Amino acid sequence: MIPFNRFGLSGNELAYVQEALGRQTSGDGPFCRRAEALLEEIFGVPRVLVTTSCTHALEMSAILLEIGPGDEVIVPSFTFVSTVNAFVLRGATPVFADVRPDTLNLDERLLGALVTPKTKAIVPVHYAGVGCEMDEIGRVAAESGIAIVEDNAHGLLGSYRGRRLGTFGALATQSFHETKNIACGEGGALVVADARHAERAEILREKGTNRARFFRGQIDKYTWVDVGSSYVLSDVLAAILLGQLEARERIQARRRAIWERYAEALRAWAPAAGVSLPLVPPHCEQAFHMFYLLLPDLAQRTAFIAHLASRGVAAVFHYQPLHLSPMGVRFGGRAGACPVTESVSERLVRLPFHTTLSSEEQAKVIDAVTSFQA
Ligand SMILES: *Cc1c(COP(=O)(O)O)cnc(C)c1O
């Protein structure tokens, strides 16, 4: 079976892990700091903190923005649960926005009707690593004094009108989960573009203590100063992360080649089969996070996934509408509220996409796809 995802070594990961094991395995060590310095350079922001996951970086964002009961947060319904759950954990009410039918990103044209005096944050997700319409989202947020937190789990190294995804919000979050472009098993980062959040973010990450200042020699003992939790990434995982980050150009070049070959090979087949290919607007430099297809309906998607499986290819669907989940319904979600999300969640399929996908394997995937008869 050709797997949907497979971790690939791309550089110095193993040598760095060995170094970490002989020196420091707990968090906030030399590899964490080197990975952070490299991410700060990539994003051009004052501070990046590596974390145990993107989920935890989102939770830190909600605490930093002091979001609580009575506050509303606008989120796409078509996303991973953590985008929303991180804010619900603080007591906020999620307000689900539908997505655009072309990019599957939060539909900025709906924001005007969703913003209320209680709106505290908008959380755009750059689906598949293609930028949301940040000009309009930024305009609405600035006009109403609303914070932007980018869930940039898919968008590392992508950009929108020449500006890096992950630098539009006061805060942005990254994921280094095994399924992401740059991976260390489980891991994430909080990208702090607004330097006012940097010091408190360090405290939240260290169980509410000022331990980071202590280790920099800025204070002579550390103590409990705020709320917090254990969001620090182990230096062993940071060693893998640094190896991957240093190899980012090779990783991205390989992902680009795979993406472009799928697009080229399926260009003629797709319209004849009633299938849509991903759309990347000309002002978006995508991050090559995934290659998806939109089938005509749920029945055909089910048949398509089964057909691929019978040919030894693991293809998978993606997010289910959050507003229709048991938790979403508790917040007033109902069928028909986000029609694009409801439609694409039943029709989307992701093809195998990882740096270890060989040319022969990709040819086999393409053959399996184009031999599908609806
Ligand atoms: C993967 C993902 C997350 C969660 O990342 P973890 O690092 O596993 O917590 C959050 N949001 C989106 C959009 C994701 O794709």
Query: What's the CATH H-level homologous superfamily of the largest domain?
Result: Type I PLP-dependent aspartate aminotransferase-like (Major domain)
Strand order of the largest sheet: 1-9-8-5-4-2-3
| Average pLDDT reading | 97
Helix-strand category: alpha/beta
CATH topology annotation of the largest domain: Aspartate Aminotransferase, domain 2
Distance between the termini: 22 Å
Q: Mind telling me the C-alpha Rg?
A: 21 Å
Cofactors, ions and other ligands in the entry: pyridoxal-5'-phosphate
Quaternary organization: single chain
Number of helices: 15
CATH C-level class of the largest domain: Alpha Beta
Fraction of helical residues: 25-40%
As a percent range, the share of strand residues is 5-15%
- Describe the main β-sheet briefly: 7 strands, mixed
Low-confidence stretches: none
What is the H-and-E element order? HHEHEHEHEHEEEEEHHHHHEEHHHEH
Number of domains: 2
Topology:
Elements: H1 13-21, H2 30-43, E1 47-51, H3 54-64, E2 72-76, H4 81-88, E3 93-97, H5 111-114, E4 119-122, H6 134-144, E5 147-151, E6 159-160, E7 163-164, E8 171-175, E9 188-192, H7 198-205, H8 211-215, H9 235-246, H10 248-266, H11 269-273, E10 284-285, E11 292-294, H12 298-310, H13 326-330, H14 339-347, E12 348-350, H15 359-370
Parallel strand pairs: 2-3, 2-4, 4-5, 5-8
Antiparallel strand pairs: 1-9, 6-7, 6-10, 8-9, 11-12
Bound molecules: pyridoxal-5'-phosphate (PLP).
